[in-house]
Amino acid sequence: MVGARPPKTQASAADRPLIDRFVDMLAAERGAARNTLLAYRTDLEGASAALGAAGLASADVEDLRGLAEQWADLAASSVARKLSALRRFYAFLEDEGLRGDNPAIQVARPGLRRPLPKILSHEEVDRLFTAAEELAGGEHPASRHVRMLALLELLYGSGLRATELVSLPRNAIHPDRPFLILRGKGDKERLAPVSDKARAAAGRWSALVDPASVWLFPSGKSHLSRVRLFQMVRELGAAAGIAPDRLSPHVLRHAFATHLLSGGADLRALQTMLGHADIGTTQIYTHVDAAHLVELVNHRHPLVDLKRGGA
Out of 161, 223, 234, 259, which one is annotated catalytic? Predict the structure, then answer.
């Protein structure tokens, strides 16, 4: 039969209509995207097939824990996604009066450890600025170098996201105002700090921009693209002797946050400056700083070189 699935991945006969109803509900009531619906269906049909003839409809907690054991070799994020699909599926069955419990909520999720962001040292940031200032110096520097210095000042000095930076309006930065108003994720407004050096660099660049331009960093009929910004940052890194794979606009945003925090900035203030809706997102930088402290203790503490005798 065309389109038939192999038996090992086919949901049980009892589960197929339930999964169809669940997916239809997600589409109609939640407005879920096509890829989301496909992901839920794939995870649920795979779980049903793995459970055998009984499938999900009559599975209990132990059945689902056994299922989770079969996923032991998968990435923690994949297991968490599958368990999330099961929890929502059983919640739907409860709402429909088809089950009186949700066995999936008693299955422990795997611990998900958020990876630490790449960071740059103060010395490496100094090298970037030295390279940018040298290229933008002199009596008649190329306009692209003046632009790069302004971009760098705003990436590291204000912690802007790449999209926020490249789409800045031409008059977004006022020479006498130490902040700018941004409209970031979720269409929410926030204030971002702008240092004296950043305002000076932006003003120097703005003088070279066509007065008719809508954008501070125009390119063609629109503004500079995020991809081109990424390339420019890496090119500057190469000039400063920093490996390209360690640099990106987002790495400079991380450096802004990490260096502020290590300098004594308040976590709530940092959350506001970065535009994080959840302070848990900002707290990743406390782990970065802690990791740096551990490295210092392990490699530079005087006790490292102290030879100790046996007990």
Answer: 161
CB 148 within 8 A of CB 212: no
CATH tag for 122-299 (out of 3.20.20.70, 1.10.443.10, 3.40.50.1110, 1.20.1250.20): 1.10.443.10
pLDDT in tens, 91-139: 899 888 888 888 998 888 776 555 555 678 889 989 999 999 999 998 8
Catalytic residue among 99, 147, 190, 276: 276
Measured distance CA(93)–CA(47) in Å, rounded: 16
Catalytic residue check, 250:
yes
* Catalytic status, residue 16: no
β-partners of residue 218 are 223
DSSP at 169: B
Q: One of 5, 174, 177, 185 is an active-site residue; which one?
A: 185
pTM of the predicted structure, to 2 decimals:
0.54
Write the CATH number of the domain with boundaries 7-106: 1.10.150.130
